[in-house]
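One thing: mind reviewing this one?
=====
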Amino acid sequence: MQTKDELITTLKKIVKPYVQDEQAFEHVTESTDFINDLKINSANLVDIALDVEEEFDIVIDNEAMERMLTVGSSMDVITRKLAEKA
């Protein structure tokens, strides 16, 4: 199981290709909003969810995907899915 810092680092690696606001990306926190802060378009949120599934070997259903709007909520979804899998 990854630590919180490791999880943020992995998540940043996944979202980096989709980020339109590099300055905001350099100051990512758990409250960072993918759409409003990083200017990631909503279509790319699906790509991010797919990349997260692949990286962590988990399945993200539509309900969970809809909650993945911030770094923190994405971490919660990932952590919960990993716990279910364990």
In short: DSSP finds five helices and no strands in the chain. The mean pLDDT is 95. Helices lie at 4-15, 22-25, 42-56, 62-67, 71-85.
